[in-house]
UniProtKB/TrEMBL annotation:
Gene Ontology cellular component annotations, sorted alphabetically: cell outer membrane; pore complex
Chain ranges passing through the membrane: 246-264
Domain SLBB: 149-228
Protein's recorded name: Periplasmic protein involved in polysaccharide export, contains SLBB domain of b-grasp fold
Keywords: Cell outer membrane, Ion transport, Lipoprotein, Membrane, Palmitate, Polysaccharide transport, Porin, Signal, Sugar transport, Transmembrane, Transmembrane beta strand, Transmembrane helix, Transport
Domain Polysaccharide export protein N-terminal: 43-144
Organism: Bacteroides stercoris
GO biological process, one term: monoatomic ion transport
Keyword Signal carried by entry: yes
PROSITE patterns membership: PROKAR_LIPOPROTEIN
Similarity comment text for this entry: Belongs to the BexD/CtrA/VexA family.
Membrane-topology descriptor: Multi-pass membrane protein
Subcellular location per the Swiss-Prot or TrEMBL entry: Cell outer membrane
């Protein structure tokens, strides 16, 4: 009997180890990346300006009065705190909204086609134009995106829309902002929804594969949406909960019908 118990114990141990390996393969990221893995970054990941982008364009000079005419005013607004009831004030520079044709209307320079440019390219263009037209001799032009945001939905711990302050954010960065995937999220089927060239594109990415790092969707762009699908376990739980709800409703309805029969009998 003792031998049989040992035998069953060994079998149970092996099954637990195998189950642990299987679950690790399902949830580990970049599983096929060897130690000291290096990959040359060959793609251009600089953000390009798109229609509906909101740009902050600031011009500075040794002569502040000359530069001031090119800068939009700063507005103040109040943010109420639901806990304390105190409304704190914040300042924000108004921005230039890129229209549907990809243009902005800049003081003295008129309409500028900015769609497809990077921040650096537009900065150089405006600086050169100000000098060539004799408007500012020594301009310092600073450009920032004011509405760069990405949304993360589905099986993550903190779904939501996140404002990005830098020019680069990767898919892994976005998932980190959302608190990482829950145990029920599909690592092998992450959806990225992107609008580009007048089309809405949906791609699937596998967090477990090193090919993720070379994907053109590894670096996110303005207004990208990341969706993490639930795995079969979570889907099964929802189905069970739905069936339980239907069963509970049916039971309540049956009791109500029985009471009605007794009352009006």
């Amino acid at each position: 009997m003792i031998k049989n118990m040992k035998k069953y114990g060994y079998i149970a141990f092996v099954l637990c180890v195998l189950a642990g390996c299987a679950s690790q393969k399902q949830i580990s990221y970049l599983q096929d990346v060897p130690d000291d893995y290096r990959q040359k970054i060959t793609q251009d990941y600089d953000l390009r300006i798109h229609p509906d982008d909101l740009l902050s364009i600031m011009v500075n000079s040794k002569d502040p009065e000359l530069a001031q005419m090119f800068n939009l005013p700063m507005v103040s607004y109040q943010i109420a705190n639901s806990n304390t009831g105190y409304a704190g004030g914040q300042n924000r520079v108004l921005g230039y909204l890129v229209d549907k044709e990809g243009n902005i209307d800049f003081p003295q320079l008129g309409v500028i086609k900015v769609q497809g440019m990077t921040r650096a390219e537009l900065t150089k263009y405006i600086k050169n134009q100000l000098i060539e037209k004799g408007l500012v001799k020594d301009p310092i032009v600073t450009i920032q995106f004011l509405n760069f945001k990405v949304s993360v939905l589905g099986e993550v711990n903190r779904p939501g829309t996140f404002e990005i302050t830098s020019d680069r954010i990767t898919l892994l960065d976005a998932l980190s902002l959302a608190g990482d995937l829950t145990i029920y999220g599909q690592r092998e089927n992450i959806k990225v929804v992107r609008e580009e060239n007048g089309e809405r594109v949906v791609v699937s990415l596998d967090l477990r594969n090193k090919d993720l790092l070379s994907s053109p969707y590894y670096y996110l762009q303005q207004n990208d949406v990341v969706y993490v699908e639930p795995n079969k376990v979570k889907a099964g739980q929802r189905e069970i909960n739905q069936n339980r709800t239907i069963g509970t409703f049916a039971s309540i309805l049956s009791v109500m019908v029985s009471l009605a029969v007794l009352i009006f009998k």
